[in-house]
Amino acid sequence: MTRLYLSNDTSARAAGADRLAKAWAHTPGLELIRTSSRGAFFLEPLVERDMPGGRVAWSNVTPDDLPRILAGSGGAPVSQIPFLSRQTRVTFANFGVTQPLSLDEYSACGGTKGLERARQLSPGAMIEELKVSRLRGRGGAAFPVWNKWQIARETASDRKYVVANADEGDAGTYCDRMIMEGEPFRLIEGMLICARAIGADTGYIYCRKEYPAAAGTLRAAIERAERAGLLGSGPPGSHGTGFHLEVLVGAGSYVVGEETALLESLEGRRGVVQARPPYPAVSGLYGRPTIVSNVLTFAIVPSILARGGEWYASMGTERSRGTVVLQIGGRVKQPGLVEIPFGATLEEVLERFGGGMAPGARFKAVQVGGPLGSLFPASRLGIRICYDAFAEAGAILGHGGIVVYDDETDMVELARHFMAFTADESCGKCTPCRIGSVRGREILERIQVGRGRPGDLDLLADLGETMKTASLCAFGGRAPYPVLTAIEHFGEEFRRLMK
Amino acid sequence: MVEEGLSALAAILERCRLNHTTQSRPPNILQSLLAIQKALGSVPLHAVGEIAHALEVTEADVAGVLSYYPELRTRPPGRHLIRICIGESCVANHCDRVLAALRDALNIDVGETTMDGRFTVQRIYCVGNCAVGPSLMVDDDVHGRVAPQKVGELLNEYE
């Protein structure tokens, strides 16, 4: 019996993994194991096999490649794939190796060790460990995680909640989806540790509707964790049943990724942003102290508990500790997931991991941090990937999405696209965002058809300033940045249409 | 058909009501509407009154949630829902060319349903398949590296 490994990740399947599984289903002597993905998506579908020196991989496989894989010809040792060997995998260390729903494999590869350690510590000691690690939230706001937990722990309440924000809406990002589909027990473990630290008995994972496979995998994982006694199986709050965890699926809406809007949506209302304070850690879901964190943030926590805060803080830069999870997409040769310590330059990441541009494509700009992120031209790629350098440049790291645009990209159309997105997705609560985004889109639309008026670019800049300073949340506050950086670096394309 | 739909609606509303009374919480309008849409294919506008009554909220509460979320529909879509991703990574990979091919193949625009009721086309901001874009989501299937010239062939998989 020959055992082959093939990813079951949505993007691996979208690249053809299911086609292989279907074609090879009845091959005698072949056992096909569906794993998570290594995140080297440019190589998917990737088929691996155990060999004396470790796993060997065949990339971009078609159904006809089976004979040579079975014969062991061709293929490259996984340890020698530069895209992977150059990374420092912590949260994604087991990706591509294990089966997502095998709790045994998760434990065998170091999983549940963080929880075991947490059980030996007092809540205060757990929070201290996070303080030492200097972990900051990975959803975009980069707030110190320990601080949030401390506030929720110190706020007296009959009930507390832990909520995973799995509404990964930033275009160009997919690491949360990979975690939910590939190592769901890691998210569950992180949430369990948080629940112990703050004294919560109920948790929710708010998963976006666009991720049906992630929601399905999570539900199956929760069921297994319940059977294994990690999670309580009774109704929430019933005595002695432990932590109750549930998956709720959303219904679209980008702004629901903002924490107060997410809690509104979780309670079943319109996903409209609420003014803060009070912050959710004091008064969140149903008015109770609630930790809302991004999936990746929870997924990092088990490693910190298992290996210690000092170890985590030893990686990265002064104020950005640990590893950063980047997701490279767009017109590069090697799109995929990259986990490295904070501090490399954008240029190094694009060269060493992105592998340069896709065949025939020429670089024009790169956008970091999702649809609200700034655009960088070739002359600005020396920026270091850490919170401080990005804040100084007026940019954001967001959720780590990196999208590369080629020279066939029309910057005026791209700017219009950004403003149309903001107008579509604005929750409508505050005027600068609700009205500003529509006016911004209208101005760009008239520039696009050659009817731009003198002073329109100044008007856009002025509108952008108003949105930046007067919007209620980061959505309206950040929305002007991609448009304004497009005008800043590619202004000639706008002015050409206005002559 | 109409009666079947209505009794199905009543059954779902009863479950939603039970759900929130046992948990002594206000009713979850969004999850109730998602359950109704799953069973009926859409949340018909004429049912808003009945839903509000069953959940003990106002009609404005229900209509407000219904109009807020892009995934909630007041009319059933075609047999297959095609969602073309227009997230930034797909934009960078020139998804406009895929959209043009889709319009040519089906003769409809975004938001419309084919005459035979087979397909409805919608836009979506990111399906999280950015590394193998441009992406098309047909029902729950995600297709990657979609070449404009292969769109017709891809749609043949869906009856």
Could you explain how this protein is built, in words?
The complex is a heterodimer of chains A (499) and B (159). Chain A has 499 residues and is α/β, with parallel strands linked by helices. Chain A folds into four domains: 84 residues, Glutaredoxin (3-Layer(aba) Sandwich); 210 residues, Rossmann fold (3-Layer(aba) Sandwich), CATH 3.40.50.11540; 84 residues, Ubiquitin-like (UB roll), CATH 3.10.20; 86 residues, Up-down Bundle (de novo design (two linked rop proteins)). Chain A contains 21 helices and 14 strands. In chain A, the strands form three sheets. A five-stranded mixed β-sheet of chain A has the order 2-1-3-4-5, with no helix packed on it. Chain A has a five-stranded mixed β-sheet with strand order 11-10-14-12-13. In chain A, strands 8-7-6-9 form a four-stranded parallel β-sheet, sandwiched between helices. In chain A, β7, α11 and β8 form a beta-alpha-beta unit. The radius of gyration of chain A is 23 Å and the shape is globular. By secondary structure, chain B is α+β, with helices and mostly antiparallel strands. Chain B has two domains: 67 residues; 76 residues, 3-Layer(aba) Sandwich (Glutaredoxin). Chain B has a four-stranded mixed β-sheet with strand order 2-1-3-4, with helices on one face. In chain B, α1 runs antiparallel to α2 and α3 packs across α4. Chain B is elongated, with a radius of gyration of 18 Å. The model of chain B has no long low-confidence stretch (mean pLDDT 92). At the A-B interface, α1, β10, β14 and α17 of A face α2, α4 and α5 of B.
Please summarize what this structure is.
The complex is a heterodimer of chains A (499) and B (159). Chain A has helices at 10-14, 17-23, 66-71, 82-85, 103-108, 113-120, 123-133, 145-154, 175-182, 184-198, 212-227, 259-266, 295-307, 309-313, 346-352, 387-392, 411-425, 431-448, 456-470, 474-478, 480-496; strands at residues 2-7, 30-35, 47-51, 54-58, 76-77, 161-166, 202-207, 244-249, 290-294, 323-330, 336-341, 363-368, 375-376, 401-406.
